[in-house]
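Bit of a strange request maybe. I'm writing a small parser for structure token strings and I need a real example to test against, not something I typed by hand. Could someone generate the tokens for this chain?
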Amino acid sequence: MESSLAPAAPLLILSCFGVSQVVADSLTAPVNVTIKSLKANSGVVTWDIPEGDTVIGFAITQQKKDVRMLRFIQEVNTTTRSCALWDLEEETDYIVHVQSISMSGPSPPSEPLQFRTPKEAETQTSKNKDEVTMEEVGQTNQLRAGELIIIVVVLIMWAGVIALFCRQYDIIKDNEPNNNKDKAKNSSECSTPEHPSGGLLRSKV
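Reply from user aminoacidic:
Good idea to test on real output. This should exercise your parser:
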């Protein structure tokens, strides 16, 4: 078993190098290669394809700076213009190349894109800031709603006080004639009684 598998490995490696050297003359390299949504352990590389190129897929080469080990990502039968990068290491420099793939082969590689992943703590801090901002917006909305409710309640209370005052004023106004009559009656009853003949009663000595 070991003797039969030994020669197969170098043949596979040679075939891979052979494919990588085949470049389609009709294709141009992707342009506007950028990195987005960069985190400590992941990111998304995006690019554009020049007009007129018939592309059936893409190939991404990801490499740590100053390290020979590569990650090769290839996908065909797609019109996607982005690719997710995963298993990145925080605070590490990376270099990315993008190639277009046509029926005749891959294009030349794009201009190298170099980026550095942030710290995990920095990513978490940025996330917490966004969460705090959303919480502050929610609290502001709650405060505004509470202020509106208080204003409405105060207006209703004032309206009730004014209505009660008007009602009491009307009752007091209606009772004023009756009070005048009672005062006149009481004053007549308290006056000195007169004699039927018109003279005052005098006591006999």
